[in-house]
Design a protein that fits this description.
The chain has eight helices and 13 strands. By secondary structure, it is an alpha/beta fold. The strands form two sheets. Strands 2-1-12-13-11-3-10-4-5-6-7 form an eleven-stranded mixed β-sheet, with helices on both faces. A two-stranded antiparallel ribbon has the order 8-9. The longest helix has 13 residues. The protein starts with a strand and ends in a 27-residue tail after the last helix.
Length: 286
C-alpha cells in the first residue's frame, strides 16, 4: 500500500492525502497549466539529503522511496510525453513508460492518449534498439550531426531534428516540435545534463523535487551537470510541500519566479498558477 501524504504547504490546503483509486486528490493538486503556443514543462527529480542524484548502482531508483514512487506514477499519468537524455535512458534502463492501471481511467478523463510518449535527446542520434514504449519507437530529438543515425534507428517520422550551435541542441525548438505533435504536457526526468540545459534556456516551468532520507556520500553524482551557473542564483516559488515517512516532496514554480509573480521562496496561495481557487483542505475529509 502506498503511504499517506501529509500536505504541509500551502497551509490553507493542509490535510492528509491517503491513496485512493484514481488518485483524484493528487491529480487535481498537480494539474499543470495550459500555455498558448507552447508546452508546459515539468521536471521531476529525486535526490538525497546531501544532494546525490543516484545511488551506488548509478540509478535513481536506488535512492527512491515508496512516497516518491507514488507521486512519480501520478506525474507520468499527467504527461503527454517524457523527455529524457540518451545517457539516462541507458543508465536507468528505460524501455517502457507505463501508466499505472489504477490511473488509466483518470488519464483518459483528462483527454490524454492511452500511452505516454517518450522523447530521447541525443546529439549523436544514438538510441538503444529495444526502447519501444507502447510498442512504438521513441521520438528522437537530435541535431544535424545525429539526424541520419536517428532516422536509421526510429524512422524519419519519429525524428525531431533541431538546430545546434557549438554542439548544443536548440531545446526550445524541440519543445515546439513536440507541441506541434499535440504533446503539450512535457515531463522531463533528466538526467542531470539535460535538466541543466533546460534550466539554462529558461524552459522549465516547474520542478518537482523529492528528497529522501538518505545520504549518498562525497563524490556521488548530483542532480545537475553542465555549465548552468546563474548569477545571481535563480529563484523559485514553493507551490506545495508533502511529507511521508521522512520523504519530502516539493513542487517549485520556476516560471512564476522568473516572471516576478511572487518573491522567490514564498508559498503560493491556493493553486493560483493553474487558475484554481483555494478551497477546502485537499483529502482532509472536509
Amino acid at each position: 500500500m502506498p503511504p499517506t501524504y501529509d500536505l504541509l504547504l500551502p497551509r490553507d490546503r493542509a490535510g492528509v492525502l491517503p491513496p485512493r483509486d484514481g488518485e483524484p486528490d493528487l491529480l487535481a493538486l498537480f494539474a499543470d497549466a495550459e500555455h498558448p503556443g507552447r508546452p508546459h514543462v515539468r521536471a521531476n527529480m529525486v535526490g538525497t539529503l546531501d544532494g546525490g542524484g543516484v545511488g551506488p548502482d548509478g540509478r535513481s531508483a536506488s535512492i527512491s522511496s515508496p512516497a516518491d514512487r507514488r507521486l512519480f506514477r501520478v506525474l507520468r499519468a499527467l504527461a503527454d510525453v517524457v523527455l529524457v537524455g540518451a545517457g539516462t535512458v541507458r543508465a536507468e534502463g528505460y524501455r517502457e513508460i507505463p501508466v499505472a492501471d489504477h490511473l488509466r481511467d483518470a488519464r483518459a478523463a483528462l483527454g490524454r492518449a492511452p500511452d505516454v510518449a517518450l522523447a530521447v535527446v541525443t546529439r549523436r542520434g544514438d538510441v538503444p534498439a529495444d526502447v519501444r514504449p507502447g510498442g512504438h519507437p521513441p521520438f528522437v530529438v537530435t541535431g544535424p550531426e545525429g539526424r541520419d543515425a536517428a532516422t536509421r534507428a526510429v524512422g524519419a517520422d519519429r525524428v525531431l531534428a533541431v538546430p545546434a550551435r557549438d554542439g548544443e541542441l536548440d531545446l526550445a525548438a524541440a519543445l515546439s516540435a513536440l507541441g506541434a505533435r499535440g504533446l503539450r504536457h512535457v515531463l522531463t526526468e533528466g538526467g542531470p545534463a539535460l535538466l541543466g540545459d533546460l534550466l539554462a534556456a529558461g524552459l522549465v516551468d516547474e520542478l518537482c523535487l523529492t528528497t529522501t532520507p538518505l545520504l549518498a556520500g562525497p563524490g556521488a553524482p548530483g542532480l545537475l551537470h553542465g555549465a548552468y551557473r546563474p548569477d545571481p542564483p535563480a529563484g523559485a516559488r514553493l507551490r506545495h510541500l508533502l511529507h511521508a515517512d521522512g520523504t519530502l516532496l516539493a513542487r517549485w514554480d520556476l516560471a512564476a519566479a522568473r516572471s516576478g509573480r511572487g518573491a522567490p521562496g514564498t508559498v503560493a496561495d491556493g493553486d493560483a498558477a493553474t487558475g484554481d481557487a483555494a478551497g477546502a483542505p485537499v483529502g482532509s475529509g472536509a
